[in-house]
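wait is this the right file?? whatever heres the structure
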């Protein structure tokens, strides 16, 4: 089962080889792509477009399976399970200035809405889902857990800060980073705070491995927090706001707005290597056992770095200058990249 849109705690080897030659298998043209990352299972990509239009594209050939017009504008990246695609929108009532939100479950086979809930404010950033619940944080400081099957609210917490990042789930906790710089681990069943840690900037990326929480902050630091000891064990300074962190087999990848990628040791945060890319790195990279794929802004290529030494291992031509903040994703052995005017699917050339 795949929950794309909910980054896993540890990057796994799914057979994807990023360093091999990859060519465009198919493309879907659209001038309405967004900065929100598509969701996917092993057969279908679910792509959020402007004006609340969700596309279901066949992963094998990129053909449109269905289109759902939800109204409003998408406010967070979708997430998918074995039955539904969960999407969020924002909308404004006529003659009102207040922005409301919705969360809805859409049948991933038909595109028909199964249930919908209205919210006082939009959910933002992304959603996370486990077997029972879908989780999201809002711009008015709420964190919610909803029943995936009915949309009924299991619990909600209110904080005096905004949530616009991507939550993740590991074990019995769901992790949220706030715009004021606090990382919280919440019990998935109750919403109670298990632990929290305050940084000095917006939290943009969280990864969990071996009872250590790694997170990046707009204060320019990468942090490692022991969940067992409830104590910070190290932090490493980068040159600018950290946009993403990913734990891989032998280290921690961190991308920063100084245009550098940092590879740090997991136990001490020591610098193994760092590499500069030709543009700002805003989107979360896609990793495999042999490399990490980045989609820097203001370039017309996606770049694969070798995880061992950070050297360039591959380059994927996008055909246009990229300004999309959507992260690249994988479906089976396909790589899907969102650009301003299309969705590109890359694969190894057929023998």
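ok assuming it is, sequence goes like this
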């Amino acid at each position: 089962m795949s929950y794309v849109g909910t980054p896993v705690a540890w990057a796994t080897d799914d057979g994807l080889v990023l360093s091999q030659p990859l060519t465009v298998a198919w493309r879907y043209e659209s001038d309405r792509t967004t900065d929100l990352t598509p969701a996917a299972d092993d057969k279908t990509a679910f792509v959020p477009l402007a004006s609340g239009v969700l596309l279901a594209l066949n992963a094998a050939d990129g053909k449109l399976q269905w289109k759902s017009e939800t109204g409003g504008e998408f406010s967070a990246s979708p997430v998918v399970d074995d039955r539904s695609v969960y999407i969020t929108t924002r909308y404004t009532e006529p003659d009102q200035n207040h922005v409301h939100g919705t969360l809805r479950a859409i049948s991933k086979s038909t595109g028909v809405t199964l249930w919908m809930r209205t919210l006082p404010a939009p959910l933002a950033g992304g959603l996370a889902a486990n077997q029972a619940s879908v989780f999201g944080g809002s711009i008015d400081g709420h964190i919610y857990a909803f029943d995936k099957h009915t949309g009924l609210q299991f619990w909600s917490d209110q904080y005096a800060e905004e949530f616009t990042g991507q939550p993740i789930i590991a074990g019995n906790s769901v992790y949220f980073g706030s715009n004021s710089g606090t990382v919280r681990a919440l019990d998935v069943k109750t919403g109670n705070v298990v632990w929290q840690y305050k940084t000095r900037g917006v939290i943009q990326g969280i990864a969990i491995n071996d009872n250590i929480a790694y997170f990046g902050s707009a204060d320019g630091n990468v942090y490692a927090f022991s969940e067992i000891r409830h104590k910070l064990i190290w932090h490493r300074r980068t040159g600018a706001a950290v946009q993403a962190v990913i734990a891989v087999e032998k280290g921690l990848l961190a991308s920063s707005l100084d245009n550098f990628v940092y590879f740090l040791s997991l136990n001490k945060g020591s610098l193994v290597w760092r590499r500069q890319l030709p543009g700002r790195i805003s989107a979360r990279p896609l990793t495999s056992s042999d490399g990490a794929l980045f989609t820097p802004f203001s370039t017309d290529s996606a770049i694969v770095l070798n995880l061992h030494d950070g050297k360039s291992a591959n380059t994927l031509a996008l055909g246009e200058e990229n300004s999309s903040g959507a992260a690249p994703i994988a479906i089976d052995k396909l790589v899907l990249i969102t650009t301003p005017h299309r969705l590109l699917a890359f694969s190894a050339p057929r023998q």
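Residues 1-42+289-351 form one domain. so i think its the right one actually
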